Amino acid sequence: MSIISWVLRFPPLQWATSTLNDALITALRQGPIPTHVAFVCDGNRRYAKTHGMETSEGHSQGFESLKKILEVCLQLNVKVVTVYAFSIENFKRPKWEVDALMDIAKSALAQLGAHGDLADRYGVSVRILGETSLVPPDVLLAIEKVTEQTKHNKKAILNVCFPYTSQSEITHAVRSIVSASTSPSTPIDPESITESTISSHLFTSDCPPLDLLVRTSGVTRMSDFMLWQTGAETMVKFIDCFWPEFDLWRFLPVLVEWQMRVKGVGSGMRKKQA
Ligand code: FPP
Ligand code: MG
Question: Which end of the chain has the smaller Cβ count within 10 Å, N or C?
Fold first, then answer.
């Protein structure tokens, strides 16, 4: 534990930090709030390495960070949060690491769905998006349980992409469009397929457009995440800190930038420069 985190455990400082966080959230809520935010939670292993921890501890800290930032989003009244928790590509990692990630996911999902925890307190429906047939049976059970436990929650949605890639999601969408055609003798009319046909067959079909996508760790790639959903209006921000370090303070400038962009602040200046 760093000296700063140790000092921040001192009760009066904990109280001051939480009061300041509440004030920041209240201030942010005076402006527009993104409806749908996505996170690429990157940098857990590098965080573990730089802090002399086991890789699995870095991933566990990643889940702690996810819970905190999810709570911030819910307090801000963000309606949909989508997180890249496991890429299909991650199956290429060593078996011990994949097993550790599966174990963390299993307990993370059980925790999220537990009575009195985040999903319950904030009315969040937890959904798992991706190739769930690839996960071990015990994790699949945890997925089914959290989905069932939270399906009636209507205030917000947490999409956990696990195991996911956009290419796989779009492949699923195309297959489902083709299989929706009435019979082999009446093939689907290609002209009838529009952008909205594809959107309506994605895992995110009932979610609002993606307003903001944040990737931590300084890496500036999309890594096959939300490629269809990242449209012309989506603000994409690459942040130079590891995911377990990402918190309200690091999220704050991103949200302020998004608010200024939505309000058109600075657009006059951009026009003059053009
Ligand atoms: C990427 O960092 C992170 C992951 C592969 C795992 C992310 C998982 C969580 C945040 C928790 C999962 C939560 C639920 C609800 C299932 P990395 O391993 O690529 O680290 P590196 O970039 O430093 O190598
Ligand atoms: Mg990475």
Answer: C
